[in-house]
Amino acid sequence: MHTPMNPSTIWLRDSLDADLAALRAIYAHHVLQGTGTFELEPPDEAEMARRRSEVLARGLPWLVAQQQGKVLGYAYANYFRPRLAYRFCLEDSIYLAPEAQGAGLGSLLLAELIARCEALGARQMVAVIGDSDNAASIGLHRRAGFEPMGVMKAAGWKFERWLDVVFMQRPLGLGAEAPAP
């Protein structure tokens, strides 16, 4: 377990084009070493730029956590599914540099992401967590108020083993208590 980070030394901000190399490097680590994503080959910087542009074009946040000029992690929200009826239900994604894992940075990013999505009028957030053994991500989401929705067993094959997908959800703002704006 890493030492908790001092939140006063972390800067959470909107991502910039200049961050793309760092975003790609962080994600490439998770693709090649982890089971939180089911991608098998890291996308290149142009593909990361395309993905980020899609999120930003929808008016959704893509945040970066920075400390002493170094990008240590990022989080973004996107439509849970591409059809327009899903526009109030967002899926979060959070990726941290290896040296930043286990120190509380994921909680800071997720809290800010939730606040920004609520301010935009989103009503639900879904976590689609790769690997039912991903205790860090499951715990992070549970602490942020997400509740288990179910598990899709053996949905992915990576590192010569079957991986589950864990679904968690939490309401945002008024949730389902009122019609959409």
Set down the secondary structure blueprint.
Layout: E1 11-14, H1 20-33, H2 45-57, E2 62-67, E3 70-79, E4 89-96, H3 105-119, E5 124-130, H4 135-143, E6 147-158, E7 161-171
Parallel strand pairs: 4-5
Antiparallel strand pairs: 1-2, 2-3, 3-4, 5-7, 6-7
Features:
181 residues, alpha+beta, seven-stranded mixed β-sheet, 4 helices, 7 strands
Approximate helicity band = 25-40%
Identify the overall geometry: globular
How many H/I helical runs? 4
Structural class: alpha+beta
How big is the Rg?
16 Å
Unreliable segments of 5+ consecutive residues = none
**Mean of pLDDT:** 95
Cα distance spanning the termini: 43 Å
Proportion in β-strands: 25-35%
Element order, helices and strands? EHHEEEHEHEE
Give a short account of the largest sheet. 7 strands, mixed
Number of strands: 7
**Biggest sheet, spatial arrangement of strands:** 1-2-3-4-5-7-6
How would you portray this structure in words?
Helices cover 28% and strands 32% of the residues. It is built from four helices and seven strands, in the order βααβββαβαββ. Helix 3 links the parallel strand 4 and strand 5 (124-130). The protein has a seven-stranded mixed β-sheet with strand order 1-2-3-4-5-7-6. The chain has 181 residues and is of the alpha+beta class. It is globular, with a radius of gyration of 16 Å.
